[in-house]
Amino acid sequence: MRLPFGLNTMLSIQGPRSIYVYSLLIGLLSGFGAYGFNWALTWTESFTFGNLIGYDPGTPAGDLHFHSVGRVGELSPLWILFLPAIGGLLVGIITSFFCPEAQGGGTDSLIHAFHFNEGKIRTKVPFYKAIATILTLGSGGSGGKEGPTAQIGAGFGSSLANFLGAGARARRTLMLAGTAGGLGAIFRAPLGGAITAVEMVYQEDIESDSLVPCILSSVTAYLTYTSIAGSGSIFSVQEYSLNDYRHIPLYIILGLLCYVVGYFFVKVYHFVQDIFAKLPLPNFLKPAFGGLIVGCIALLFPEVLGSGFGLIQRMINGEVLTSTSFGFSGPFFLLAVAIFKVFSTSLTVGSGSSGGLLGPSFAIGGMLGAFVGTMASVLFPELNIIVFPFLLVGMGSFFAGVARAPIAGMIMVCDMIGSYALLPALMIVAMIAVVLSHKISIYRNQIKNRFLSPSHHWDMNQDIMDRIRILDHFTEFRKYAMVSEHLSLTQLQSNAPGIQASDFILVGSNEEYKGIVSLRKNRILPEYEEELKNLITCSEIVQDVPPVCQSDTLGKALRILLEYDVDKLAIVEDNRCLGYLRYIDLFNAYQNEVKNKNKQRKVV
């Protein structure tokens, strides 16, 4: 669905200010979407955990508005064993027959859409992702709820960009703004949501172009969400500050432990993904099989079920976590929960069920931090160790390491507890985990930096671009998307899918260049096609975009593409159109030039 003909100029994105306004709207929608999702999920978990499984996983303070597990029945081994498999089967049916994009963590697919699909997300994805995640987590699967909320917001952003006929750059920005809105709302982290959205797409960079829209969206979503659910952070924490420097060596040990277990987590998760991809089972049965193994783990450790946020709140409150199955507690029980959470999360998400990886990463890191804090209090009672700061620092640092997102890991935890008192300790531990984890990432679609991402073709070195002439790299040009000025708009819309183009070069009867027609900016809605059929010709809606000639530079061509928001540019000689160049053509020529220069340096 797009803007009705005639409204495109009024409401289309004209510049950064338009992006900012629409980011506020996306944040508003993301806040409502996150609230609706969290309401449905908590009520589902209340029924399944309380009435079927008979296990209370606890509730974070920020989610008490929705519901908490009320009356808990007797622990049921049968439901523990088979409920995750039943949930996995239902999710498998959804992802196999209705929406394949709803499987897995969600964040990786957003990163892929940003880099390789111009920020495009099908409108139905957020709806099916929400249902699939509710089924996964509600049945005891080990995952997080940030994946669907991020995709709900990202879907709003991408769909709005399509509706407005925006270009790829604007669509990517609005998609990230929606992602930030979903994260900022569900975690009650207005700054953390924005930073996570711009940092998660790269291993060693941030998407700085989208930072302001992400902040606007995340803050708006947070305010929308808390205006309904009540203010406050997601975790209720007593005040604490790092004032005993004798604890610093313990935090260093925690950083090393976060790296070791994080490396293990990434390897196990990717191994499970690859195994299930090759498993000779119908795709709709794979999540059920993974859920069955999770159920077997949960028979021994029910603590691995769900997101784990409830357990974190219980430990923050000072409760000594005791094994439900064996009745023992202590530091090694906490370490065992962390290790088995690695396996249960990998099996849940890696087999194709729907759930995020950010939430479980926080839970695993929290258990590692609690392990270090508890062990230190046993070995060094004179240090007067308080466990919950280690737990919280472990949360952010573990995620920072496995996701290659150091700033996001630190800021997110500070937002989630409503205090920056732990920031110095977070900085120490997160930096250790990130520096040691420089070759691993839980997200396979992350790109190392902006330069290597297809989303930043316009960031190519302009000095080099201005030295390369078009004729140095091109002797022939594409002509598939060249159309006659007499062609009607309805005919062009009918032909576009076969040509697989959205922008077209308009030429006259003698192939003289007339301009460019963009179906992203001009389109007749289906309900008006019959009335307007053949009434509007391409020459009436042509956009006056300057052409270039073969002696011009790639730099000039790139500047025109960016200024006029088109995806191809006409090559003209003696007023005759020879064809056109696309973004990817300029990018490839630039890359070839850089490679040739590097080879010459090596020879010298």
- Strand line-up across the major sheet: 1-2-3
Note poorly predicted spans: none
The H-and-E topology, N to C, reads as HHHHHHHHHHHHHHHHHHEHEEHHEEH
What is the radius of gyration computed over CA atoms, rounded to a whole number of angstroms? 27 Å
Q: Helical region count? A: 22
Proportion of residues in β-strands: under 5%
Total number of β-strand segments?
5
N→C terminal distance:
57 Å
Which class do the helix and strand fractions yield?
mainly alpha
Mean pLDDT: 87
Q: Which percent bin holds the helix content?
A: 55-70%
Which shape, going by the Cα principal axes?
Answer: elongated
The major sheet is characterized as: 3 strands, mixed
Verbal overview:
Helices cover 57% and strands 4% of the residues. The protein has 22 helices and five strands. It has helices spanning 8-11, 16-53, 77-97, 107-116, 125-138, 146-164, 168-186, 190-199, 211-229, 248-278, 286-300, 309-316, 331-350, 358-379, 387-403, 406-417, 423-436, 462-465, 489-499, 529-532, 554-564, 583-603; strands spanning 482-484, 503-507, 513-518, 568-573, 576-582. The chain has a three-stranded mixed sheet, with no helix packed on it. A two-stranded antiparallel sheet has the order 4-5. Helix 19 links the parallel strand 1 and strand 2 (503-507). The longest helix is centred in the N-terminal third of the chain and has 38 residues, at 16-53.
